[in-house]
Each structure stands twice: as structure tokens, then as C-alpha cells.
Amino acid sequence: MNLENFELIYKENRVKIKDKAKIKSKLGEIVGNENVSDKEIDILAYNKDTTLITLNWTLEGKIAALPDFIVWPETPEQISSILRLANEEKIPVIPFSEGSGVVGGAIPIYGGIILDMKKFNKILEINDKDLTVTCEAGINGMNLERYLNAKGYTGGHIPQSLYTSSVGGWIAHRAAGQFSSKYGKIEDIVMGMELVLPQGDIIKFKTIARASTGPQLDKLFIGNEGTLGIVTKATLKIWPYPEKRALISYAFPTFEDSLEATRQILRQQIYPAVIRIYDADETNRHFGHIEKAKDKVMVVFVCEGIERLVDLEETITRETCEKNNGIYCGEAPVEHWFETRFKVTETSSTPTFKIVADTIEIGFLWDKAADMYHSVIEATKKIQGVMMMTAHVSHFYPNGVGFYFTFAGIPPKEKTDFEFYQEVWNCVVKTVLDMGGTISHHHGIGLNRAQWMPVEWGKSFDTLKSIKKLLDPNNILNPGKVYESAWKEGGRN
Ligand SMILES: Cc1cc2nc3c(=O)[nH]c(=O)nc-3n(C[C@H](O)[C@H](O)[C@H](O)COP(=O)(O)OP(=O)(O)OC[C@H]3O[C@@H](n4cnc5c(N)ncnc54)[C@H](O)[C@@H]3O)c2cc1C
Fold first, then answer.
1. Residue 219 is part of which domain span?
2. Is 51 touching ligand 1 by the criterion CB < 6 Å?
3. Which residues contact 350 (CB under 8 A, 6 or more apart)?
4. Is the pLDDT score of 488 beyond 80?
5. Pocket test residue of 173, 233, 362, 395 for ligand 1, highest count of atoms within 8 A of CB
6. Position 158 in a domain
7. Which listed site, 316, 326, 359, 378, has its alpha carbon 20 to 30 Å from 140?
């Protein structure tokens, strides 16, 4: 195989490493020669993450980006030495865990060193009294959850990518799991951390339930997307495995009814672990076999915990749904959801049919949530080539919600896949920003949302960029992401 024969999407501004043999040998001295590679087959394997448009590129024989080296360190000290070397030589370093990110965060757009975290895979300690687990950051999410379940606990953080994501990846992009209304998002779950800063310093945030010790610096690193530090270890909250689970589902005549019912449930301080509203199109797609749900809006709930509390949560959830025109659909739809909740072939297989698709999750306060949903659907359906634009609501707070849109279409002849893809993204983001929402609820910024950061953050974006500059003056840690927009220029097809 000769990689020169393939079109490289991100080739401009690639770092030129003068003496590759010297760098390889220095990396080998740090991590051992067996833990460094510049073989074509390896660097090709790390050309992208799971951003859907990159799969369209792959099928067209194009490569998103190529790193120069892959390293598999095992200790924070090794990472520290790699970062010191990278600073001396001005070579980008891109943290990479399981590559399930969907916003291009781990794509090595300027080449450099991919720092694969998979050897950081140990579970170090469970503390039953404190209800914590301490583990290395590269551990696979499903391996951690299975281990906890076997010991009688749950971590409560169950993203759809559980099988293909890591603790470090969750922390890096402020992830949200399917059971988040009860257990919280990752920022609620992390209690302590160890990180390596861009210039090689190793820092630790002690495990504590809460502190009043000045600004909480640890929070700066939750959501840093591998640009301010590399997470090597974390202590997370755990909970006793639930004694009981109640599976509840209701079909609502309108989207508004379903939003109103869930809002009222949360207002009563009832937090079902799982709440998911599927708009009418998604209801027909996922629950077409449930007669009562036909052309309606399906909502599934899972209440879990100790039996007495679950019973009360179930009673209040059901009463509130019925008050808001909900039609009870029993346990079967929720059982179906449990069986299919990790299945994503619907969207991930679309590029094989030359369809351009993606998912866009955003956050909104309750007040204009329904208006925002209708505005996004109406605006995007006007775009030539869009065949489908649907949504579900999967994250809930007493004050607002996280929406998850899915689009698919075939670009008109005069547009490339990427131009069409950007047109839809632009339309959704503009609508959301104009109406006061946030451009990402949990997938992060990475490469493809960085262009909107100045609008999302306003003046405070300058402060954020100053912090990046202070911690990473040579801009070697995951450059081209979050603070600068390389997506527009780079991703041409
Ligand atoms: C099918 C599917 C379902 C998904 N479902 C969800 C969901 O339910 N909830 C949700 O929140 N997200 C979801 N995601 C997106 C989410 O980004 C990833 O699944 C995941 O959390 C990223 O973890 P990872 O280990 O794969 O990280 P990667 O993809 O390897 O990296 C993601 C980003 O984090 C950085 N990074 C990785 N490890 C570290 C580290 N140790 N220290 C510092 N930076 C690091 C990388 O540089 C990159 O910027 C889904 C993605 C897919 C493909």
C-alpha cells in the first residue's frame, strides 16, 4: 500500500518533521521501541475518529489526516517526557483513546504524535464507604461498568458508545450518559483526577466530595478535549446496583404534550434515570411495531433505585403523563429500547448508500424548547437534498433539555458532500444560536464546531484562548481544535 496514492483531506499546514528517525528513536527511549510505530498500517488506522462525514471520505478513497507516529505510553511520567520532547521539537500531540468522538476531536489534522491511551486500562480501587472507583483513564467504559456490576455497583454513566469509549474520553468532552437524569453527567460524577499538562507537569486534584478552596481549577479540565491536559487517572462516583427498575412508556398526541409532561415530572423533583422523548418521525422509526404509538410521540422512562422510592417515582411519573394526555404503552417499548440502545447502524451505514448524515445535539432552556425544535425542523427541511430531519430529547433538567437531531440527505449535483453537510450544520447551529441555545449539549466542539465558538462564548472566548496560550504556549496539544477553526479550510472534498 502506498499512502501517497490517496487524497489527503488535511494536508495544508502539516508539520514537517526534519529528522523522523531521530524523533522515533527518542520516543522509543521513552516508551520502549515496541510502543512506537510509524508503520503505514498503524498511521492509517488513526487517520480519523467516528465523525460521520469522514466515513463518506473513506468510502471515496480519501484519507482525513495522517499522524507521523503512534505511541502507547503506560505511565504519566512517559506522557510527561513525550510532551517535553514535543515542545522542544514543536510537534503536535493528539490524545486518542477509543476514537468514538464524533466531532473530529482526535483527528491529527497537522500530523504529529498520536498518544493512544489504551494501556491506561487498570481499575485501581473501589471504596465502598466513599462510593468511589479509581481507575486509569484509558479504561474502556463497558469493561469498567461490567466490573462494577459484578461487584454490586453501577457507575451510572452509560453513553450509547459505552462499548467504544473510555473514561478519559468521557471527561475530555463532558459526556452525558443515557441514565443522566438520576446519576448526572460526567462533570457531576468525577471526584478526583490526575493529568499531564501540555508542558509535561503532572498534576493531581484530590478526591473530595466538595471544597471551597478558590476557583475549582479541576473543572477547567472537564471538557478540555485533549487541548489543556491529558487525563491519566480519575476517581468517579459509583452507586449500589439498583434494587428495582420500573419500565414505563407513554405515547403523546403532540410533541408539546410530551415536553410538558416531562417538565412537570422534573419540577416535582422526580428524576427517572432515563427519559427519552422521540418525535413522531423517530417514534414511527423506532416504535413502529407499537400500535398505540403510531404517529404519536413516544416517551420511555426508567426509574431505578431502592424499591420504595422507585414505586413513588413511578406513581408520580404515570399520574403526570396521564394528566398531559399520555396513553400508557406498558413495558414493551422500554424493553425494546434496552435491546436496541447501543445499535447505531441506522446512521453509521448511511454513507455506504452515498447518503450524507449526521447527528447534532444541542441544549435549550424549557421556555422556548418546543419553538426551537419546530424552527430547526422547518429550516433544515427547506435545504435542497435533505430527506430526513428528526429529533429525540434525551437529557433533562428542571430548567432545560438536551435535543438530539439526526439528518440525512443526498447533496444536489452542484454540491460536494462536505458543502451539503456544512449547509445543514450551519442551518441548525444558526437557528439554535439565534434562539438562545447552546451549540453542543455533550458531543463537544472538536474540529467541526470550533468555527462557532466566538459566537457561543462572546467576549469570554478571549479569556479561554488566553488560558490555552498560558498552559500550551507552543500550541502542541491537539492544535486546530476548540479555539481555532481548521474545519472550514481543511475539510474539502
Ligand atoms: C455510536 C456513538 C454513540 C455515542 N453516544 C454518546 C453518548 O451517549 N454520550 C456522549 O456524551 N457521547 C457519545 N458519543 C460521542 C463521544 O464523544 C464518545 O463516544 C466518547 O465519549 C469519546 O471517548 P473516546 O474514549 O472514544 O475518546 P476519543 O474519541 O478517542 O477522543 C475524544 C476527544 O477527547 C480527547 N481525549 C481522549 N482521551 C483523552 C484523555 N485521556 N485525556 C485528554 N483528552 C483525551 C481526544 O483528543 C479527543 O479530542 C457517541 C459516539 C458514538 C460513535
1. 123-240
2. no
3. 52, 356, 357, 408
4. no
5. 173
6. yes
7. 359
